[in-house]
Amino acid sequence: MGVYGFFTRRNLITMLMSIELMLNSVNLNFIGFNKYVWPNKMDGLFFTIFIIAIAAAEAAVAIAIIINLYRSRQSVDVENAEEMKY
What we know:
The protein has helices at 2-8, 12-36, 43-73, 81-84. The protein is mostly helical.
């Protein structure tokens, strides 16, 4: 669903939400494999916490960039990519 949302949407904020959805699906896979394949190890949990921290930093930076683009161009539509070039 995240890949589909990323490729079909034209709004930068929706594309960012799709990336977050993909990162959360990776977290679920890490937790699931950690519980059933290696139940005595904590590797999947550590990777999950690391991905959550990276996702939070990525979201903060991306939202700041999107807000600056909106202030300067009055649009966050990807179709207007020619206008977004510097």
